[in-house]
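Morning, I've got a small favour to ask if you have a moment. I've dropped the whole record in just underneath, so have a look.
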Amino acid sequence: MRARILAGSALLTLATAAGAADFTTPAGCEAFMSVQNRGCTVSLLWRCEAGRAGGVWEASFSLEGLDSIVSYDDDYQWLDAAYSWDGSREKFAPPASDPISVTELLETGLDTFDFNMHRATPDRRYDIRVTGADRLTGETVTIDGFEMDEVQTQLEIVDDEGTTEYASKGTQFYSRELGMFFLGPEEVVGADGVPGLYDDRPVDIILPGEPGFGSTMPLYDCRLQDAAAPALSLPAPEAAPL
């Protein structure tokens, strides 16, 4: 399962759009894919020499700049995430009672998960519990020339006081050829309890050497928003739990 990054009305982004164009991956890392999505986002994905084999880092950009940096291991277990709008950071707290496993999903058609992450905000440190399931529907779609499995998703994030901070259900997509998850249409309920519909499915999947590779300017469904920007530190590859 891909982590969905919400860019709501309270979003504070790291950089202006002009500054986002100057984004470079950390030393010792190499970008291998850019993805232009619906919902006015673009993703840049890279791997690092110091990271775990097969592990992936992903930076997500909106029209205003960098929104988040998230890392996954080679089986898509969430490991580390930094969010610009609230200055928060989440780190995987092993061992997981039931880690995310794309291997299990592809072999059996169903992957359940249940794990904890340490969450730190500017004024609070606490644990969150992430539970849910991914299920292959048996249907496939073709996006930008790549065949993808349709994946039914369900997710809930609860804090250490039992409050649901986030819940979602909907559809994501998995490309066996690329070995990557992509977002799709999902209903999301945040901490305020108000449901919202999001559709960030990919439009252009761009590989090295192709036009638009490395661009951090989103192209689809964009609307200008006024936002200011706190600083977000880029996690160093040697500090990543990959």
In short: The two ends are 17 Å apart (CA to CA).
